[in-house]
Amino acid sequence: MPSPPIAARDRLIVALDAPDIGVAENWVATLGGSVTFYKIGMELIYGGGGLGLAERLIGSGKKVFIDLKLHDIPHTVERATQRIAAMGAQFLTVHAYPQTMRAAVAGAKGSRLKLLGVSVLTSSDDADLAEAGYGLGVRDLVERRARQAAAAGMDGLVSSAAEARAVRAISPPGFLLVTPGIRPAGGDAGDQKRIATPASAIRDGASYLVVGRPITEAARPAAAAEAIVAEIESAL
Ligand code: C5P
Q: Which parts of the chain sit beneath pLDDT 50?
């Protein structure tokens, strides 16, 4: 059965990259109904309280992306994935190593959790991969891991907008592409090197956009979120 279309608003995932839970809670309160999907990562989780916040958000009807980029022996990955699935989270990241992905798929079985592979970290270039012992460059490794993710039964990949078109071309129908590095036209790039506007990322095949500072540091965060939702809508 084909999956129902995803509404523009539900394609915007706001990254709660806050130093503490209080700041993150304030952002969520300020954003109110303008945002339906939040990403919680290592900083808030290891700082304490990130998983509790995730549970509260899920309880209030929001969707939550747990960005923990799991990678360990299969038994541990499977059990950790089961825990995240039991929380009711919507998305979880794991590194796109075939063994790790297969374990995560086993852990998510029977739940609504969708698994996203992290192909190659965007902080790595060809020289970094060579230094780590890889014989493939970034482009080839991303492509190989995209194919392996689909074969392992993963739901999608995290990819930069620059890779989205190439990954979309080799992905099975319905494969999710979740794209960070988004900057509304004229916005400040911050430390992001490869950026795309919301509309161009959607046109290049992104299913969901992860946006942090352009919303959380905006003078009017809810208005910034609404503008991005409108831009997504215009590109669908
Ligand atoms: O503030 P900004 O919009 O740059 O935040 C982007 C979010 O996406 C951050 O949480 C960052 O960790 C995440 N991310 C990224 N690039 C990747 C993977 C994740 O910027 N390749």
A: 1
